[in-house]
Each structure stands twice: as structure tokens, then as C-alpha cells.
Amino acid sequence: MPEKRINVGIIGPGNIGTDLMYKILKYSRYMNLKMIVGIYATSDGLKIADKLGVQNSSDGIDALLEDKSIKIAFDATTASAHFKNAKLLKEAGIRAIDLTPAAIGPYVCPVVDIAAHVDAPNINLMTCGAQATVPIVAAIGSVTKVSYAEIVATISSKSAGPGTRQNIDEFTQTTARALEKVGKAEKGKAIIILNPAEPPILMRNTIYTAVKEQKKDEIIAAVNKMVEKVKEYVSGYRLRVPPIFDDEKVTTMVEVEGAGEYLPKYAGNLDIETSAALAVGDLIARRMLGKEA
């Protein structure tokens, strides 16, 4: 491991922010988690940070901005909050990695387009549904033109906290745009279903694509290769249903099981977002260290 690391902070000690805290502390090779901030002193996430020895504050983003050593901030709040936070982070010269559906910066999926946006001041990690499905649409699109992509993300209602529920509209809009912008489908549509089943279900994503040419063997190979790439940073990502071909339609399904660092394993929808954040953050931090060397 390199001796020098880039100091980073997390804004928002909810489920996503707390899970990301665990991941950075346990797995990051290039980041040092300097601080996590929220706005409620009684937050479970801040209490956990105390136990883990991570500096924390209930003074919100102001506390993070006071620490001039922080170079990267992960925003795990809400879309509406990020609109305000993004401006403050930019003014402070802090790189923002946005885990909300605010969609201010370029849409980024680690295995599809991070190389094009690694130096962007504000990176948007789209949504959990997009992180799970855009790679598959992009894989199919690498073989044949995708004229339409529709995804149905089904998650356990228990894994949908206040932030997720507050951002349902932003989720569907951002995911649909991500299918187009990153997945390169001509038209995209997204649907999210909160399933109250007991025991809680794992995150499942059904992906429908309309293609110009049914190059079956090539599509299957591209999808399988992409699944293995995603599994490099999301261990619980797997192909639930391999490509099914019906005239111009290709249907497939992926499932995401959480790593169980902080959140339950059924919360794969949150795990894939924090796993993507860790992967992108480490890449940016490594690049920063290289520039400084």
C-alpha cells in the first residue's frame, strides 16, 4: 500500500454514507477517511463513526469545508441537498463524488466511462438501478445498436430509506437518462418497485432492450464479460437470467447481493452504489497521488 493517501470526507451519515465509511476504512488503497458529517447529533452513523475512531460532526458540510486537507467529498445526502453542496465544494476546490440522483456532473459507471471523466470536478454516480443495468445495456450496445432500453429495478422496501423514497422521481429520471447517456440506448425508461416481501428479497433488475441485429453469440459473450468486470468491485453482482432472444427484443436479469459490511445482504441496491463510489474514489485518489509524485 502507498504510504501517502488522499484525505476524503463523507457528507451524510445515513445508510449509504455509513456503509461507504466501512468500505473506505476496510478496502481503500489510496484514500484516508478524514471525516464524516451530518446534521443530527443523534445520528446512528455519527455514533458508529465515534466507535470506529473517525472524526465526525453534526455541523454539516460547514465542518467538512473547514478542513483544508480534504480533497475529495462523497455526498450521500439527497438530490436537493447536493444542489447546494455542489456549489460549496466547487468553491472550496474539493472534488465531489455524488451518490444522489442530482445529476449535476457527468454520469459515471466505473466499468463503462470513468476514463472519460476521471478529472471532472463533480462526478455523478447516477442511481443504484443505473449502476446495475447500464453496464449490461452498454455491453449489448457494443455489439449492436440498442434502439430502446427499459429496466425494472425491484428492491426490498426495507432497503429503501427516507433518502431513496424522497428521490423516487429523480431515480427514474436519472436512470432513464443514464441508459441513454452512458448505456448509449437511443431511448431509455426506468421503473422502480419497492417489494415488501418477507424475508426481504435481493435487488433484482430486469433489462429489456430492442436491438437492430440479434447477434446472439456476440451479445451473450459481451454480457458475460461485463458481468465479470462489475464483479471485480461488486462481489455480489451476478447474472440471474442470461440473455433471452425474442425477435428484436433481448431480455436479461441481474441480481445484486450486498457484501454485508454494515447493511444487510438484501440491500444490494445500496451496496452497488457504495461499491461504485469506492472504486471511483480510489481511482481519482490514485491519480491525484500520481500527479503529486
Architecture blueprint of SSEs:
Layout: E1 6-11, H1 15-27, E2 31-37, H2 44-52, E3 56-57, H3 61-66, E4 72-75, H4 79-91, E5 95-98, H5 114-117, E6 122-124, H6 128-141, E7 146-156, H7 162-166, H8 168-181, E8 188-195, E9 203-211, H9 216-231, E10 237-246, E11 249-256, H10 268-292
Helix pairs in contact: 1-2, 1-10, 6-8, 6-9, 6-10
In a nutshell, what does this entry contain?
This protein is α/β, with parallel strands linked by helices. The chain is 41% helix and 25% strand.
Can you put this structure into words, describing what you see?
- The structure is a single chain.
- This protein is of the alpha/beta class.
- It has helices at 15-27, 44-52, 61-66, 79-91, 114-117, 128-141, 162-166, 168-181, 216-231, 268-292, and strands at residues 6-11, 31-37, 56-57, 72-75, 95-98, 122-124, 146-156, 188-195, 203-211, 237-246, 249-256.
- The protein folds into two domains: 6-125 and 271-292, 3-Layer(aba) Sandwich (Rossmann fold); 128-265, 2-Layer Sandwich (Dihydrodipicolinate Reductase, domain 2).
- 41% of the residues lie in helices and 25% in strands.
- The radius of gyration is 19 Å and the shape is globular.
- Strands 3-2-1-4-5-6 form a six-stranded parallel β-sheet, sandwiched between helices. The chain has a five-stranded mixed β-sheet with strand order 8-7-9-11-10.
- 52% of the residues are buried.
- Strand 1 (6-11), helix 1 and strand 2 (31-37) form a beta-alpha-beta unit.
- Helix 1 crosses helix 10, helix 6 runs antiparallel to helix 9 and helix 6 (128-141) packs across helix 10 (268-292).
- The protein starts with 5 loop residues before the first strand and ends with a helix.
- It has ten helices and eleven strands.
